[in-house]
Automatic annotation (TrEMBL):
Signal peptide: none annotated. SMART domains: MGS (SM00851). It is an enzyme of class 4 (lyase). It comes from Xylanibacillus composti. One of its GO terms (biological process) is methylglyoxal biosynthetic process. CDD domains: MGS. This is Methylglyoxal synthase. Pfam families: MGS. The keyword Cell inner membrane does not apply. The active site is at 61 (proton donor/acceptor). It catalyses: dihydroxyacetone phosphate = methylglyoxal + phosphate. The lineage of its organism: Bacteria, Bacillati, Bacillota, Bacilli, Bacillales.
Length: 139
């Protein structure tokens, strides 16, 4: 079971909801996390259970970043709006930097998101289970 974060900027939330609907059968087999409004909208349109954090600008990106920093997140789908300045851009950059440090796959657009979800369907993320199994302090 993977830990998957779903994050979407305001103008990408509808796209994220449609993505979650399309891959609900995959996401239902994993633990999902999301920033506030994104998680709420997905839960309203699907039967998925999502652990919701605060809205991104209010610290939600940093809350997810804390899971990334401790290598407890396996995949992030972050549908970013490249044409709109974000007031919490430093938080976004910090989250992406942490994902790079920990080697966590990140999709920032729907095309890459679909590739990663298809990889999950095929079982290509089994290497993440090894990360969890051999994490320092794991039994």
């Amino acid at each position: 079971m993977l830990n998957i974060a779903l994050i979407a900027h305001d103008r990408k939330k509808e796209e994220m909801v449609n993505f979650a609907i399309a891959y609900e059968h995959v996401f239902a087999q994993h633990r999902l996390y999301a920033t506030g409004t994104t998680g709420q909208r997905i839960m309203e349109q699907t039967k998925l259970t999502i652990t919701r954090f605060m809205s991104g600008p209010l610290g939600g990106d940093q809350q997810i970043g804390a899971l990334v920093a401790t290598n407890e997140m396996d995949l992030i789908v972050f549908l970013r709006d490249p044409l709109m300045a974000q007031p919490h851009e430093p938080d976004i950059i910090a989250l992406l930097r942490l994902a790079d440090v920990q080697g966590i796959p990140v999709a920032t657009n729907i095309a890459t998101g679909e590739l990663l979800v298809k990889a999950i369907e095929r079982g290509d993320f089994a290497w993440r289970e090894l990360v969890h199994k051999y994490k320092p302090g794991a039994v």
